Amino acid sequence: MITKYGEINNEQLIKCLDRYTNRIFQIIPMNENDDERKTLPIYVSSLIRELTGVSNIIFEEYFLSIVGTLKGLEYDNHDTLKSDVFKLLDIIKKLKKRVK
Length: 100
Description:
The chain is 77% helix and 4% strand. The chain is mainly alpha-helical. The chain has one domain (2-99). Strands 1-2 form a two-stranded antiparallel sheet.
């Protein structure tokens, strides 16, 4: 894939997307655990900063959808949060198909 700084190996990008899949999925069990729920906004904020940086390097509209959805997560509504997480995982799956 061509980026702002040149070409990135597709295999490396797939590994990166797999890592984001794991990090985003982790939001669900964190929200279910009272102790981890307290740090969830910090965790998501860190993820948003990283993905925003990546979106400045890789010109891909899917990253904007991912960041926008993460910014709008409702931590108090677990069903909506789970739905949004699965939406994000589906977006990443589509992005991976585009890369392959």
